[in-house]
Please model this.
Amino acid sequence: MLTVDEALQLVGQHAAQLAPIRIRLRDALGLVLADEVTSDVDSPPYNKAMMDGFAVVASDRSPTRTIIESIMAGDVPRRPIRPGTTARVMTGAPLPDGATAVVPVEQTELVDDRTVRLEWIDPPPGKHIMPQGLSMSSGQCIAAAGRRIDSITMAVLAEAGAAVLSVVPRPTVSVLTTGNELVSVDERPAAGQIRNSNGPLLTSALCEGDYAPSVLPSGRDELDELVELAQQGLEADVLLVTGGVSAGVKDLVPAALAQAGVQQVFHKVALKPGKPLWFGIVPREHGPPRLVFGLPGNPVSGFVCFHLFVIPALAVLAGRADSVVLRLSKGTSMGEFAYGGGREMFRPAYVDAQQRVEIFPWHGSADLAGMVRANCLVRLSETGVELAAGDRLEYVRLPGINPGK
Amino acid sequence: MLTVDEALQLVGQHAAQLAPIRIRLRDALGLVLADEVTSDVDSPPYNKAMMDGFAVVASDRSPTRTIIESIMAGDVPRRPIRPGTTARVMTGAPLPDGATAVVPVEQTELVDDRTVRLEWIDPPPGKHIMPQGLSMSSGQCIAAAGRRIDSITMAVLAEAGAAVLSVVPRPTVSVLTTGNELVSVDERPAAGQIRNSNGPLLTSALCEGDYAPSVLPSGRDELDELVELAQQGLEADVLLVTGGVSAGVKDLVPAALAQAGVQQVFHKVALKPGKPLWFGIVPREHGPPRLVFGLPGNPVSGFVCFHLFVIPALAVLAGRADSVVLRLSKGTSMGEFAYGGGREMFRPAYVDAQQRVEIFPWHGSADLAGMVRANCLVRLSETGVELAAGDRLEYVRLPGINPGK
Model:
């Protein structure tokens, strides 16, 4: 059976950044720049007053000055400042020619409408002035290709006039849950039935990862129905199917996916929980292939596979990462814990701000309710592990998960 | 002038959790539960097979068994298992009465359609079975009031039948930028003009905090226009206004807000950058007052005030926090840095996974482009600070900000 690392490598061979698209800046939050962006303006665009006050010639020592105009942000100064004169300036206003410092209004006193007395007559040159182009200059690269657009970058791009951008699109992801036993949250399960938790789990986890899921109707264990739903799901860049990938006679998902044109890459990974994981692709003429993950129907197993395989693959499609790898963090164990080994295990646990990891009691892969305290998955080696308090360990963080209040 | 702590306390006196609403589970991601939720089902709802295999009486040692039925998830077993008989079971299937263990299919061999030979004849009782109700039982509290609904909680709530929930709503937030100098990202700034970066900055930062902003048209520095826009903005729980709060003659925002019915709570805080911060309220008959923040027009100053005051206030309204406080984290300085003091400063910086903080070169509050590397704000005392490499410091993390790739 493939190891987790071998399976990740196989996924990595088929996951590639999506072809760039051009979009408006307002739609770009969270996306990755496909090209570098240069500014078309200086910032500030002029020597700018950083305080409300009076624009002066710094070397002028006269205690009173004649006020020749008032300038606020948005105005254009009309007259230069010379010794003996001043202009009232508001924060953000452009400085008139000749002005080399700003005396804050708090350090001045109005004598009359046209005259001000300065309590501070020797401001150093440049005081309370931001020189033109200091923050960014026209033609300068202000954001490199590969940068993810967060709020600060968004503001800088707006200032720089990047109204339309070339970005890596957000991959589209379809979610198809399968199983005769599933009923919706609105329904009362009859004997043998359970409510569908995989749908809400995966769509929410996709939202937490800043991906936009589309949800297909839950599929029954009938080949024709599954083929049709899979075909619909394959309109997306990535299709997630849950259930029907174990060795049971009714595990029709691999057959349905094959019939829908999906080429199997692997089935089963030496992973606990999550062994039945299935992975395939649909080549496309342009761009990277569509990826299809057949996740175990057990919600915990599917969730572990989602965070170990799907999230790293989506990060590559979205341009957020260069390769499909686990982002392992290092922490220490809060207490004792033993794992007998067998398959490599990723066990739900809680990590605090000091990277201390608590491996809390949990009833195994069917215990979804027992996972609500988890915000990470601790890696436990297939050769077995005996942890003492303070021992080093590695874990994968679950992004977007906020245990407790 | 108020200190940052005093100003936070004043905001805290007016910020309170919004009144709960009832919504459907699918709309609840990221919201906080107003009431505890109990399950209406056992999970698993039956003794459940955890492997594909054969359900047996654990104490039965006969090497071959007669297959009396096949059971998959969603089925209801019809016949009890007795010594000498077995039922084929798929992962997730309910176990028939009498069955006390599952022998995995890999450890069996079919003799004919009705007979199976077991390679493992003495499984311990309970092997590969999840007992009914082990994960959660009917009537049990599965999520406490105050829990924020993440993907795992969402899945547990779905399984438990919580189709409609009582939650704290997401506060609504209006964003009103003001200033004659502002043009949109699509426009070429004329002399004296700059592009509006505050709008994209604050709306994006609200999205990063999982709040949903609504954006008003940018307001010119005209009292009547500002009053009208402020009144529109006051339909939201929180109104953010940028610009027009300095001491300049054209700083009309406090006057416009007063005319729109906002009661000033404070104006100016001993904070760098961010001194002009203005805060007021509009009492409501039911529920906590609407909050109004007049943020400095300088984008960096406004952004600092947003993360120090607005985000903690929104967290209280949304039920994510009990009080309006800074979430300070501890780290160490990567290099030397000196701050001469004056006002308490929150300076943009970069913190890595090991809590090491780099205070990088930055041209002050008008240098928005110089902030793109920031993912935190380092607190520097008003009495001045001299940091050496390795010295301890405190910082506020900027949630949602992902510097670099």
